Amino acid sequence: MKLERSLVAVREPGAHQPKLSAHGVSKTFRNARGDVVSALGEVNLDIAEGEFVCLIGPSGCGKTTLLNLFAGLDRPDTGGIEMDGRPITSPGPDRAMLFQDPALFPWLNVRANVEFALELIGVPKDERPDRAMHWLRRVHLGRFANAQPHELSGGMRSRAAIARALACQPEVLLADEPFAALDAQTREILQAELQEVWSETRNTFVFVTHNVREAVFLADRVVLMSAPPGTFVAEHRITAPRPREFEDVLLSKIVVDIHDHLLKEVEKVVEREREMA
Amino acid sequence: MSNGNARWRSAAEQIIPRLAAIGLLLLAWWATVATGVFSSNVLPSPGAVLQAFIDSFATPDPPRESIIQAAQASLVRLVVGLSVGIVVGTVIGLAMAASALVQRSLGSLMAGLQALPSIAWLPLAILWFGLSEKAILFVVIIAAIPAMAIASASSIRLVPPLLVRAGRTLGAKSWVLQRRVVFPAAIPGYVAGLQSAWALAWRALMAGELISTGGKGLGHLLDANRQVFLVSRIFAVMLMIIIVGMLVEALFGILDRRIRSKRGLLAPA
Question: Which of B163, B168, B170 sits opposite A117 (nearest CB)?
């Protein structure tokens, strides 16, 4: 079982190589005043192939920074960031990214957005429409293929972004709070749909969120990050079988545990901000 | 989606205030003429201007040019000068967007040029090129270049970074990223630049024709009528300048609205 394999220390010689790994990775930024701010303390993380990992933590803990490092949009100050044992140096279509905003191209209609992604990975022109439509139907957007992005609701735009990401059949999916801007009901529907689609595609998934319930519902493993500079403070494995239900009592208990822990980290941040004020 | 009725109503809401404003102006004009304070050689009545406008379509003597020929000559100059200005300005703007060094050097030069009304170049242009077509075109081109350069550079700088990041994570690199993501995203800002460039070029052209007495064009006709004291003809040419200007303006307006409505950038009516 995939889950079991990710439990063993994957870095040991002879062990299965992790799909994604970060070791000794840290990152600092300069803020507007020119001070050096540590965005990410030293972190180590191995993610097995097909594993769904949620990163959770207080604002400013570096979750998004770490995600951008995996995406290749940014480079670490120290340490190494690898995919299949090779250093990640630039973005690429083998790692699809879902942003907080769907980031659809407003001059292209929904289908053309997906077809553009297919074009970039070299899918021949005559195959693109069918493949684009296949993925749009998978996220229940078949009837809106010819709509412009601005004509869609927020939830539909998120679906279109998911279709665009999945259509390239990436080895890794990276998501940066993709549902944060949606209302609670739409978010639950999309979480369930994402679970359903992912159960079939099984891409390696790194999902950043503020929302503990979302993390526990989706993930094989929830990694809790500390107040900034972010490091990993706890890890929870969620072994509950899929499809999962939001009402699952066992999951709810894990949610409460992680939530308490997260609250302590958030309190540290608030405390520090009060001291600074 | 608007039904037919609502569409008529919104069309009426668009048109009625415009007609009312023109109507009020005509009324005030007519009333002023009716007081008899001004002689018709100074301020002709609206009717006399309309008559002069209609008459000026036939080749009159003097001036030597019909108003249509003059409008044609002016439009040709506008198209030629504006095209050259757009191409040169865009190239400079792209270079400014691509390199911080070019932005700092050429960019500040463009900002300085924009502060100089382009008609101020005419004396130099006349010295360089003589009282010729070239002098007028030079002024038109130099009017459009800074506006286009600044607009195309800033339209690229203002492309949402998120769209660029999205393009990069999908695998778009270098030239493909520029051509398929950055340029399309910059188009609304670029079209806004076209709108201001054409307006500046049009003003420069009229001023240039007026001063350089290049022999043809609406600006020249304006001055030719002044020399023979045909005041109602002067009004008629001004009316023509407004009409041609509004037609060109409308063309760019349609382009702008089409692009922005496709992207959902139009405020709901």
Answer: B170
Provide CATH code, domain A2-94+170-276: 3.40.50.300
**A103 contact residues in B (CB cutoff 8 A):** 162-163, 165-166
Prediction pTM value: 0.85
pLDDT for B64: 67
Please count the CA atoms within 13 angstroms of the CA of A114 that sit on its side-chain side: 34
Residues in Cβ contact with A138 at an 8 Å cutoff, skipping those fewer than 6 apart? A163, A166, A197
Same structural domain, B31 and B85? no
User: CB pairs below 8 Å between A and B: how many?
Assistant: 66
Phi, psi of A82 (to 5 degrees): -135, 155
Kindly determine whether residue B170 and residue A106, on different chains, have CB atoms separated by under 8 Å: no
Q: Which parts of chain A sit beneath pLDDT 70? A: 1-15
Taking only the tens place, the pLDDT of each residue in B245-266 is 999 999 999 999 999 999 988 8
Q: From residue A110, how far is each of A152, A163, A178, B16, B267 by CA, in Å?
A: 9, 10, 18, 39, 21
- Enumerate the residues of chain B whose CB falls inside 8 A of the CB of residue A106: 185, 262-265
- Tracing tokens 């693109």 back to the chain, one arrives at A128
Judging contacts by C-beta atoms under 8 Å, the chain B residues touching residue A92 are 169, 171
pLDDT score of B63: 55
Nearest Cα residue to A5 out of A15, A14, A201: A15
Closest by Cβ to A95, choosing from B169, B180, B263: B169
**Chain B: closest CA distance from residue A67 (Å):** 12
Do residues A48 and A18 touch, judged by C-beta distance below 8 A? yes
ipTM for the complex shown: 0.87
Average pLDDT, stretch B233-254? Answer: 93
Q: Which domain holds residue B22?
A: 1-37
Assess whether B244 and B190 both reside in one domain: yes
Residues in chain A, how many? 277
- CB contacts under 8 A, B 125-164 vs A, are 162-163
What span, in angstroms and rounded, lies between the C-alpha atoms of A100 and A212? Answer: 17
Helix A110-120 and helix A128-138: axis angle, to 10°? 120
Task: Read off the pLDDT of each residue in B73-80 and give the average, rounded to a whole number.
Answer: 95
pLDDT given for residue A12 in this prediction: 46
Searching chain B, which residue's CA lies closest to the CA of residue A121?
A: B171
Question: Distance between terminal CA atoms of chain A?
Answer: 51
CB contact under 8 A, A105 and B166: yes
Indicate whether B97 and B213 sit together in one domain: yes
From chain B residues 174-233, the ones with a CB under 8 A of any chain A CB are 176, 180-181, 184-185, 187
Decide if B262 touches A, using CB distance below 8 A.
Answer: yes
